[in-house]
Every structure is written in structure tokens, then in C-alpha cells.
Amino acid sequence: MGGRRASGSGGRPSTGRRRRWRPAPAAAALAQAGACLALLLAGCAPARPDGPVPEVFCAAGTLDAQGSSAQRNAMERWIRAYQRSCPGSTINYEPSGSGAGIKALVAGMADFAGSESLLDAKEQVQADAQCSGGRVVSLPMVIGPVAVAYRVGGLPELRLSPALLARIFAGGIERWDDPAIRADNPGVQLPPTPVHAVHRADESGTTETFTAFLSEAAPAEWTLGSDREWPASGGVGAEGSERLAEAVQDTDGAIGYLELSYARTEGLAVARIRNASGGFVAPSAQAAVQAVPEPAGDLRVDVDTGTRAAGAYPIVLVTYEFVCDRGLAADEVPLVRGFLGWAASAEGQRLITELGYAALPEPLRRRVAAEVARIS
Known about the structure:
By secondary structure, the protein is of the alpha/beta class. It folds into two domains: about 10-140 and about 320-375, D-Maltodextrin-Binding Protein, domain 2; about 145-290, D-Maltodextrin-Binding Protein, domain 2. Helix content is about 35%, strand content about 20%. It is built from 13 helices and 13 strands. The chain has helices at about 25-40, 70-85, 100-105, 120-130, 160-170, 180-185, 205-215, 240-250, 260-265, 285-290, 335-345, 345-355, 360-375; strands spanning about 5, 60-65, 90-95, 110-115, 135-150, 160, 195-200, 235-240, 255-260, 270, 270-275, 280, 315-325. About 50% of the residues are buried.
């Protein structure tokens, strides 16, 4: 792959042995019972961002997980709240990227993995081999708009059609005052600043989501397909969502794609993207969830990038947690069920909307929570 690369060390699975703390059964039972009793007494008041959380099943032990960097901010919020309520638990999440998370899962180096990219047939077989008598299930847990963030001096607002977005990231637009950009932004004073398109340099589910949108919404302009790896030459590569946000922030004329919460953290301007009904819509949780239909059969969500719903934002990622439905070590099962059950709870989903993510639609959330409860 050509182009420049921003410095960083993300995108690689951990290579050390998985850490395990196996408490004495009596001590673990006492800690678990005490924590659960405290939570039952706490009632169902809304949780503070880092405070104790309601309706949580506590379990002692350690989980090691990794994968999607797009869900890092959601994971950090969930982990802080869960560990505060359940002090005997430790959940480690490494935002190594979707591709690295899948590799860690199939190698037996992760208790669960997060990814916007679903497992292919080969990966599913390899992952299932890590489940003694079970299989890996794909649980949609995080929904978020993929923002197109930019830094262009003197340009407080930007509108982009899918065709123009495709041309920019394919390397067909070199300056911000290009006539094609003017056409989408009439009356706006555009500078002659060079365009620096920033993409993910690691295997990324966000990249697959973004390129899938370009393939569907602008097939004539984007002929490079959809993949976890960035398919175009040129541009600037950055490993992980955080470093991509930093690269955009540090470069005048830069434009990049990333989950909305990262753009908010860096204070980046984000473009309005034209949807299928012709409206230019800014990314938000409310706009994103309008493109997420209820799954018909299994829990795999097909984002409707062509929805004509009023105010819908068309570039939406869904992060799945891949985890064994059966066959986990006996001491892992309570903590996996407890933590993922908290993430899938109504309060867990509400909590991450404060960061810019969208809560799972209630019918889908209930199905995910029921699937988590069946983990054994």
C-alpha cells in the first residue's frame, strides 16, 4: 500500500499468554454474593458515568479482550462502571483494531473480541475451535455513526455527496477549492489548500464499513471494493482510530473517517453527508439509528445505507462482540455473562449515548441480552 503512514503501534494482537485469576471458590462466592446484594439494594436509579450501575450481575475474575478501536470509548465507559460496582472483577480491553481482535480470538488469546467486520467462513471455523462444544456467536453491541472529520482553515461547515467523498478518498480531488467541492457547497469560500486524505493503516472494521458505503452509494466513483484493509494507493495511513483523529487534527487540509466519539474528543469539524433522500445530514446517534433495521433472523445487522428516512445519516458502523456461546472455562462464564449483560442492558446502552454512540433499538437489545444470558 502506498502513501504515508502516521506513527503508532496499534493493529497488532497481543502475543503474551492470557492472564487468569482463579479465586478460591468460597471467597469468590462471598464476593459475588455481597456485590450482587449491594446492587439489588441500590435500586434502579440512573447510573453516574463512573459510578455504581443498577441491575448488574457481579462476578470475580479477569477477562482479556481486544479488537475494534471504534468501540474503545464505549468499552472504557462500561468497564469503569462495571469494575466500580464489582471490585472483584478486572476487564482488560485492547483497542488493537478489528482485524487484530479476530486474529487474537482464533488464536485463543482473547476471551471475546470486538469487530465491525463479521467473521468469514474460515475465521468462524477457527474461532469455533476455541469453544469446547460450542460456537462463537456474533452479538451486536455498539452502534455509531462514522463521521467524516476534516481540518480546513476557514471552513466551519462542509457538505459532501457520496460521489464526491469517493473521489476524495480515491485520490481524484487534490485541492479544497476543486469545482466538485464547490458544487456541493455553493456560496462557501473554499481555500486552495491541498487535500490530505487520511485512512486507517491497520485492518479495520471502520474501513470496511466506510468502503462498503462508498461501494453502495457511489459505485461509479468507487470501484475499489470493500475490505478491512485500505484498498487505495496514496494518502496518509494511521493505525487506530485515535491516531487517525490526531493525524486529521495535526494536518491542515486533512480529511478522514472515524467513529463520531473520536471526532468529538479531538474537537474536529465533521461533514454533513448526503443521504439517499437528498438531504445533507450531520452524524449523530439519532440520525444513525434510523439506518439500522431490526434483524430478521439471526443477530447480524444489515445497515440500510440507502434508507430514505428523513434525517437519516447513511454511514453507520455496528460493532459485534464475538464470544463462545458454550465451552468457556467454568470460572469465566459468570464474568462474561455479567459484563456483556451489563453492556447489553438498557442502562448500559443509555450510558454510551453520552459519548455519541446510538443505543441498540429496544427489540434488538432484548434479543442480544437474552443471547448473553444463554452463554454457558
